[in-house]
Amino acid sequence: MITKEGDGNMSDLINETLNMAFDKFKKFGFKDEQIQQLVESGKKDLEQESQKLIEVLKAPNLDFEMLNKSLHALKGLLLNMGNSDIANKLIELRNGDDSEDKIAEIKKIFNIK
Asked: pTM of this prediction?
C-alpha cells in the first residue's frame, strides 16, 4: 500500500504509519482484504486521536493529564501499526516532565504549528 506524499503535516506521520502497518500485516500473512480493513480502521483511529491531541495542545489552559492520555492512546496505535520509533518517543515524552520542551517536542513529532 503506497499512500500519497503529504503536505508536511500530521498526515505524513499517519501515511508513514499506514505503510508500516500494511507491511507488518502482510508479513503476518493477512490477506489484502483483511489488511485493507485493518489499515482503514487504524487510519480512522489515528486521525481521531491526532485531532484530540491538537485540541488538547490548542486549549487555552493546557491539561497535562489529558495530554498524557492522548500520548498514551497514540503510542498504542502506533505500536500496533508498526511505528515503534515514534511510539517509543511518545513513551519517553509521556514519562518526562511536563514542560514547554515536552510540548515543543510533541509539536515537532506531529508537525503541529
From this structure: 0.85
